[in-house]
Amino acid sequence: MKKRVFSGARPTGRQHLGNYLGAIQNYVALQEDYDCIYCIVDIHALTTLENTDRLQQDIHEMMLDWLAAGLDPKKSILFVQSHVPEVMELHTLLSMVTPLSWLLRVPTFKEKARMQPHNVNYGLVGYPVLMTADIVLYKAEVVPVGEDQLPHLELAREIARRFNTLYGPTFPEPQAKLTSFPMVLGLNGAQKMGKSYDNYIELAATPEETSKLVMTAVTDPARQYRSDPGHPEVCNVFSLHRFFNTGRADEIAVECRSAGIGCVDCKKLLAEGINLRLAALREKRASLAAKPKYVSKVLADGAKRAQAIAKKTLTEVKEKMGLLPPAA
Ligand code: SF4
């Protein structure tokens, strides 16, 4: 029997190249070897989102990108966190076995509290408990994480372990599947590619939009004139060539160092590489978007399958906690 993987991502709308290279590609690959459950975590988003006007649209666009990139509803369960409300009940029950001191020491809580001092809500401190509920509700054994997320998973393991100690073996302690997510810098070359920095290229961008955006990318700052030799190792355009023009990257590096290629031509090559690589995804996205209600059907089916697992786990938890009579 395949092991079960769980992963969740916040509803951030149309996905960009950084999301694709950092997470989505990995999600798609895991489908072959694991029983995968992928969730758009809309409740988590509420801990920081103060305006929810775009929430439904963002969920829809994000799922379209996931499906177009190869997430397959026949292989994986794809759903929205709040569509399986059992997770909120389990969150409350797990909060009774989680010492507050464990939550207050979480560095991301302190960071978020610093970033939004006007909105240090209860959900922010309880975030790791809800994250644990997300994972253990489906008895997931494996969680794909980057190294920076390991402390969060360790906390989930501690909460699961504490429940098991208090009420008897119930949850598997989820194991980390360490993935080396590539750090994809944004077009400004300064921060990670992301919506908050407005330095991204959407997967769904047209080839023309992609070319225009690539032309704005910051390159090696030392290369002032066409005749100056470049330093690909410090150039963000070059780092993207490594992903989108893999077979030609070494040749491009040599050309850059000898000033054999100018930055404008180099960017044109990159735009071509991105457009070629994403052509099939974009075509599929357009055809899925043209099917009315396709995404909502996928999400409804995913929620139904997820809920069947969730209900079973929750009944078991309540029986063990004495909230229901033990099963006969
Ligand atoms: Fe960067 Fe390409 Fe210009 Fe070299 S030629 S600095 S790799 S954009």
Question: Which descriptors apply to this entry?
Answer:
328 residues; mainly alpha; Rossmann fold; Tyrosyl-Transfer RNA Synthetase; 2 domains; 3-stranded parallel β-sheet; two-stranded parallel ribbon; elongated; binds iron/sulfur cluster
Task: Give a brief outline of the structure.
The chain has 328 residues and is mostly helical. Helix content is 52%, strand content 7%. Strand 1 (4-9), helix 1 and strand 2 (35-40) form a beta-alpha-beta unit.
Notes on the protein architecture:
- This protein has 328 residues and is mainly alpha-helical.
- The chain folds into 2 domains: 4-184 and 292-320, Rossmann fold (3-Layer(aba) Sandwich); 205-287, Tyrosyl-Transfer RNA Synthetase (Orthogonal Bundle).
- It is built from 13 helices and 5 strands.
- The strands form 2 sheets. It has a 3-stranded parallel β-sheet with strand order 1-2-3.
- Helix 8 (150-167) links the parallel strand 4 and strand 5 (175-178).
- Helix 3 packs across helix 12 (263-289), helix 7 packs across helix 8 and helix 10 crosses helix 12.
- The chain starts with a strand and ends in an 8-residue tail after the last helix.
- Iron/sulfur cluster binds at residues 219-220, 223, 230, 232, 235, 237-238, 256, 261, 263, 266-267.
